[in-house]
Design a protein that fits this description.
435 residues, alpha/beta, Aspartate Aminotransferase, domain 2, 2 domains, 39% helix
Length: 435
């Protein structure tokens, strides 16, 4: 064992970490002896900010104290409640304030965006997405294609890695545009692929899509709060995300979406323009706040992405996300990303001695991944599953993705270098005991 791969080395790194204090602001799952588990599953469900309990309790108190009057007079009035989240989301996505809104869940928001931006016409009827996309994304895309009377099997282009590879190259995406660009109406792509942990160059994909006349949107479920984003600058048309992973908003947390300002500006404010790209499915909460409660039949859209709102936000769910976004604002995503690169890089280094039994399928370059490393255990899926179960029994929280992947993600807000060291040591012990 080298001097840089010991528990002492991990603790020295933690002592020098300027972000180490943020760990104390989260509830850490513990074993029956009260000891913190090695929690490396923030890519699936982020930990609870301790402040979330207080904010949710305050909303409950205001509900009890004020009833309906809380819409205007709660500590954080409920009518404009989504505005409490906009600044934090804009900072994390590299967007303008009016380009983001917290609402619904990821797949509901994806359906709303596809209804607005998927406009098949003439030869341009196809949607491009990656093969092996998260199942809910594929279900949404296929159903939107079918809703328009088209055949998903014919209109859906799914780009897969070349045989023998786990990840896709940007060159392969470029080649797909060269072959099919005139047929593609819309591109839906992940910021980070959920199974492999591969991060994509969203600017490059956007430029390629726009060169070929395609609308482009991104699923940022595994990107927001994890990687650096610049949605406005890169000119993405839309994006959607959930908030229960790296954003620590809680199980089933309110999601969000981005709509580039040029699309909101292009829509008439006072009419439903069903023929225009970016036209909205309207609901009363997308009405401008000034006239919303007049309950008139005419629709006058709110400014920016807020016009895509359908209903009022779930206050109790949104309160927990306010707590988390306040932590992100203080920590700053640039500093978190810097620590993340160090954490995940050291984890990969610690796994090198296990290379004969552990294959890291996530790209090695830090620019092509976020926190997550996806591991394939030699000996087949059955052995991999046994290794995963043994890790769980040893106090490590990670997750299993069929058919044969263990996903681990050291999250810079609350994971330590010692957590990374403990995982690598435990995995080595488990591998020696699992045939």
């Amino acid at each position: 064992m080298s001097a840089d791969s010991t528990r002492e080395a991990a603790r020295a790194r933690d002592a020098a970490d300027p972000l180490r204090g943020f760990r104390e602001r989260f509830a850490l799952p513990r074993n029956e002896r009260g000891e913190p588990l090695v929690y490396l599953c923030g890519h699936s469900l982020g930990l609870m900010p301790l402040a979330a309990a207080k904010l949710v309790e305050e909303e409950l108190e205001d509900w009890a104290r004020l009833g309906v009057i809380g819409h205007e007079h709660a500590r954080r009035p409920w009518v404009p409640y989504h505005e409490n989240l906009s600044a934090g989301l804009a900072a994390l996505t590299g967007a303008h304030l009016l380009e983001v809104v917290a609402m619904n869940s990821l797949t509901v928001n994806l359906h709303l965006m596809l209804a607005s931006f998927y406009r098949p016409a003439g030869r341009r009827t196809h949607i491009l997405m990656e093969s092996g996309a998260f199942s809910s994304d594929r279900h949404a895309v296929a159903s939107q294609i079918a809703w328009r009377g088209l055949d998903p099997e014919a209109a859906l282009i799914e780009l897969a890695p070349v045989a023998g590879e786990d990840t896709l190259s940007e060159e392969a995406i470029d080649e797909c545009f060269a072959r099919h660009g005139e047929e593609i109406a819309l591109v839906l792509w992940p910021g980070v692929q959920f199974r492999t942990g591969q991060a994509f160059d969203l600017g490059r994909i956007t430029r390629a899509a726009h060169r070929h006349g395609c609308v482009v949107g991104f699923d940022l479920a595994h990107s927001i709060g994890n990687t650096l984003l610049a949605l406005h600058e890169t000119q993405a048309d839309f994006a959607v995300w959930c908030s229960y992973k790296y954003l620590n908003g809680g199980p089933g947390a309110i999601g969000g979406c981005f709509v580039h300002q040029r699309h909101a500006d292009a829509q008439p404010r006072t009419a439903h323009s069903g023929g225009l790209p970016g036209a909205r499915l309207a609901g009363w909460w997308g009405q401008e706040e000034r006239t919303r409660f007049l309950m008139e039949s005419g629709f006058r859209a709110a400014g920016g992405a807020a016009a895509w709102q359908i209903s009022n936000p779930p206050i109790l769910a949104a309160a927990a996300l306010i707590a988390s976004l306040a932590i992100f604002t203080e920590a700053r995503i640039e500093r978190l990303r810097e620590k993340s690169v160090q954490l995940t890089g050291w984890l990969e280094q610690l796994l090198h001695p296990l290379a004969e039994q552990v294959h890291v399928i996530t790209p090695r370059e830090s620019a092509r991944r976020g926190c997550q490393l996806s591991l394939r255990i030699t000996g087949g899926a059955a052995r991999g599953a046994r290794v995963f179960e043994a890790l769980s029994e040893s106090g490590v929280v990670c997750d299993w993705r069929s058919p044969d992947i263990i996903r681990v993600a050291p999250v810079p807000l609350y994971n330590r270098f010692e957590d990374v060291w403990q995982f690598a040591r435990t995995l080595g012990d488990v591998l020696r005991g699992v045939a």
